[in-house]
Each structure stands twice: as C-alpha cells, then as structure tokens.
Write a structure and sequence with these properties.
- The protein is of the alpha/beta class and 491 residues long.
- 36% of the residues lie in helices and 19% in strands.
- It is built from 14 helices and 15 strands.
- The chain has helices at 13-41, 47-50, 95-107, 141-147, 180-194, 211-226, 249-258, 289-299, 352-366, 370-376, 394-404, 413-423, 445-470, 474-477, and strands at residues 7-10, 54-62, 82-87, 112-121, 173-174, 204-208, 234-236, 242-244, 268-272, 280-284, 306-315, 325-334, 377-385, 406-410, 427-435.
- The strands form two sheets. It has a five-stranded mixed sheet. Strands 11-14-13-12-15 form a five-stranded mixed barrel, surrounded by five helices.
- Strand 13 (377-385), helix 11 (394-404) and strand 14 (406-410) form a beta-alpha-beta unit.
- The longest helix is centred in the N-terminal third of the chain and has 29 residues, at 13-41.
- Residues 15-171 form the AMP nucleoside phosphorylase N-terminal domain.
- Belongs to the AMP nucleosidase family.
- InterPro entries: AMN_phosphorylase, AMP_N_sf, AMP_nucleosidase, AMP_nucleoside_Pase_N, Nucleoside_phosphorylase_d, Nucleoside_phosphorylase_sf.
- It is an enzyme of class 3 (hydrolase).
C-alpha cells in the first residue's frame, strides 16, 4: 500500500465508493486499450500510460476527539489515531460491503475519507473479461510480461490476517484484511475451482464432502424456485447456466443435468435471494484438509457471514448410532496443514450463536426435543486427520483420542474451523455419523445407500434452517471472539 499517493478528500462514504468505482473503471479501460493495441501492432504502453494501470486507494484518517464511541460491534471500530489505507478492486461489486464498513467509522468516529490512485498495479490477467482474449492475437505470455503488470507471488499474502504485519512509524495502518491484489488472486481462483463466477457466491455457505448433499441441495433449490412466496430467485450452476423462477420444471431439470460439474475440482451451486441478497451457496470441497484450506482461503475475501461444514464422520463412541448427529464444540487438529499459521495449541473456540442456531435448527427439522434430541445430537470434540487411513495408526493415536474425549473423526472440520478463526469468518460444524470404525460398523454398500437416502436430506435441511435463524442475528454473529487486539477497522 502506498502512503504517498495524491488523494482527494470526499465528504461521505457514498462519494468515496463512487470515486473508487470511477478510478477503477478508468484503470481497467486504460489497460485494456493498451493490451488491445499491443496485440494488434506490438506497440507497448508508455510509462505515462502504465502509471494509469493501478488500483484505487481508499484512505481513512481519524483523530480522537472526546471519549470513544461505545458499542458491541466486533468490527467498524477505530482504536489507533492516524491513517488507515487499503487498495480496492471491483468496488461496484463490493459497494454494499464498503458502505456498511465506512458508515459507522464516519458517523460514529468522525473519520475523514480520501481516495486516489495507488502504486499497486493491476495484473493484466485481472482486467480481461473472459481470460482468453489475448490468445487470438498470438502474443506470448513472455512478451506481455515485459510490458504489462503480471501477478507476482511476492505481492500476494496474508500477513495482515496472520498478524505478521508490523507498524512502521509514519506509515499508514491497514484498513482491511485483504488488499486488492490479494482479492483479485482469490476471485480468479474461485472461478477456477468452482466453475462459477465469483459474483454468484452467496454470503451463507455450506461446505460438504459428499456430492449427495449437493444433489439434495439442487432438488430443494428447484422446489424453492417453484414455490409461491419463496424469497429465492435463481440458481447458478457450475459452468455458468442459470435456472430462474420462470423456467418450467422440465427445462430446469435439463439445465441441471447438462451442467458440467465434473469438470471442476470443487463445484459450487448458488441460490440467489431477491434484491435484498443473502442467498445460499453449497460447495463440494471433496475429501481432505488441503481442499478445505484451499477453498476457504479464497472464499474469505468475499467476507461471507458464515460457513458451515455438513458432511459425514466416523462415530467414536459405542452409544452412537449410524445417522446420529455430531455438533462440534471443539477440534483435535491432526490435519497439520495450518500448524505454522495457527499452531495446534491455539484454541479454536465454538461460536455460541452458531452452536445455538444449529441445535435449534436440529430440533425444528427433526421434531425431537429434550432427551430425544440428545439421543440423536451429541455435542463434543471432533478429531480431523490428514490421513484417511488413520485407523492403521490406531495404536499410536488411541491415547491422544482418549485424552481429547473426541466423539467423531473426519478430515475437514478442524481445518474449516481454524480457517474461519484465522480469517475472521463465523464457522460451525454439524456432522452425521456414517460409520463406527472402532466398533466394527463400517460402510458396506447396501447399508450406505439406505443411510444416504434417509439422512442426507434431513441433514441438509438443518444446515439451511440454521442460516434462517442466523440471518436475524448478524450483529452478534460476527463475534468478538474472532477479533485480535489490533484488528483492522473493516470486518
């Protein structure tokens, strides 16, 4: 982030976002024109032209005047006087988010805003619409790299989120967890992994490790689009096709069947929810902690309201039955993938708002209450491994599992919770016991099929009902448990 850019003071958050949009569009247009000319006749951009290929810069200045405002928000707070800055990408797409973050800082703290052109260049792949426009010109990537900004790994990092950013005297502090180039990197990765436009991703996200949950979600979504009074308006499919409320059931089913979800590593489906927004996305992240970290690294830049893990687990207690639920309130992290970023000794707290909502949703969907619900829904620690064949190390793992009092085992939940904690995204886990590896109850083909047919639909509905409950609790959901003592002002 530059701290010597020429900045223009603006009066309101609305004016700031409008100016960000204008600067961003001007930068894209300048770079696209230069790229088009270069592919036509080989004329490179001049130094003056290249100076326009830059992200806009948003700056906030605050000087304390009297006592600090008192509120229970976990975000939208200023603790240190001076300048806070960040570069911004796609300000029109993030308009509502930017306004929601800026308004309390201006209205409650009296902060002043200014906008200008940063020194952070926009890599040329990020200004192209489809990504293949340059192939028709026969221009090599090496030739483009000589004259246009390219993605640089040295410029992309999570130092702010990971607490590795250090204040330097006279330098501005970060305003947000992610700057523009980090966001653009992830936005393109989301398209690659999920097979859908990143702008289709909704703020309520279900993460699963089984395609059967996706199939149930799609069936429920199609029914919602046909239901009178439903708040949902369209379903975005992998590959980019969209089912709307106007599509007859037969046509909708054909669109779903034709969606090329198999081409994508972690296919996603997005059910949009009217003008007010707040729809639901489901992503099949596959199996393992590596996928879990990969997708959440990228989803986090969209600042979702919550992600929930709904998938299968192995039950570790004799009293559990196939089809019972496990509500994780703690994690024994044996996934190892985040050990350097969030060491295993760092506790990953259960978020009360999410835990209560999951339990209330389970009661509402199953119809069980009291002891009947407790028999089916057990709260406890989940152990997440990076090795699917952890059972082959049972003699080494037995004591650790015993000490943790773990009641279930999987491969993703601990990673997803740690990522939510690390990247300040509310998280939760509700798993369904599909086998009991320590008690001789393994997944045999016939039993597995019967289990899937019975359990997946109910499990999915509990996740969806949880989001309905949490929609009314956004203020409390973005918990102070996720915030460090030196947080950025933006959520």
């Amino acid at each position: 982030m530059s701290h010597d850019a020429t900045l223009e003071t603006v009066a309101t958050p609305e004016a700031a976002v409008e100016r960000l949009e204008a600067l961003y569009e001007a930068a894209l247009e300048a770079e696209r024109l230069a790229l088009d000319r270069f592919t036509r006749d080989g004329t490179p951009p001049t130094a003056e032209e290249r100076a326009r290929f830059r992200y806009p810069l948003l700056s906030l200045r605050w000087q304390a005047d009297g006592p600090l405002p008192r509120n229970r928000r976990a975000w939208g707070k200023l603790q240190v006087e001076g300048d806070h800055r960040t570069t911004v990408t796609h300000p029109a797409a993030f308009r509502d988010y930017l306004l929601s973050q800026l308004r309390p800082l201006v209205e409650e703290y009296g902060a002043t805003l200014s906008v200008g052109r940063s020194e952070q260049e926009i890599p040329y792949p990020y200004v192209l619409e489809g990504g293949d426009e340059l192939a028709r010109g026969g221009v090599s990537a090496a030739a483009l790299a000589r004259h246009f900004p390219v993605p640089m790994l040295s410029a992309v990092g999570d130092e702010i989120a990971d607490g590795l950013w250090h204040y330097r005297e006279g330098a501005p502090r970060p305003l947000a967890l992610f700057d523009a180039v980090r966001m653009d990197y992830s936005l393109r990765r989301l398209v690659h992994y999920t097979g859908t436009d990143w702008q289709a991703v909704q703020p309520w996200i279900l993460l699963t490790n089984y395609q059967r949950y996706v199939d149930q979600f799609v069936g429920w979504a199609l029914a919602e689009l046909q239901r009178d009074g439903s708040p949902y308006t369209e379903l975005v499919l992998p590959g980019g096709s969209t089912v709307t409320r106007d599509d007859p059931p037969e046509a909708a089913a054909e669109l779903v069947a034709a969606a090329p979800w198999q081409r994508f590593q972690m296919p996603a489906y997005h059910l949009r929810r009217g003008a007010a927004g707040g729809g639901v996305t489901i992503v099949n992240i596959g199996v393992g902690p590596s996928n879990a970290k990969t997708i959440t690294d990228h989803l986090a830049v969209l600042r979702p309201h919550c992600w929930l893990m709904i998938g299968h687990c192995g039950g570790l207690r004799a009293s559990q039955e196939i089809g019972d639920y496990v509500l994780a309130h703690g994690y024994l992290r044996r996934d190892k993938i985040l050990d350097d970023l969030v060491p295993p000794e760092i506790p990953i707290p259960a978020l009360a708002e999410v835990q209560v909502a999951l339990q209330e949703a389970a009661a509402a969907v199953t119809g069980d209450r009291g002891e009947a619900l407790k028999r089916r829904l057990r709260t406890g620690t989940v152990v997440s491994y990076d090795d699917r064949n952890w059972e082959l190390r049972w003699s080494q793992e037995r004591r650790r599992i015993n000490l943790s009092r773990a009641i279930a085992v999987d491969m993703e939940s601990g990673t997803l919770a740690a990522q939510g904690y690390r990247l300040r995204v509310p998280y939760g886990t509700l798993l369904c016991v599909s086998d009991k590896p320590l008690h001789g109850e393994i997944k045999l083909p016939g039993a597995a099929t019967a289990f899937y047919q019975r359990a997946v639909s109910e499990h999915l509905r509990i996740g969806l009902e949880t989001f309905e409950i949490l929609r009314e609790q956004l203020g409390a959901l973005h918990s102070r448990k996720l915030r460090a003592f030196d947080e950025t002002p933006f959520r």
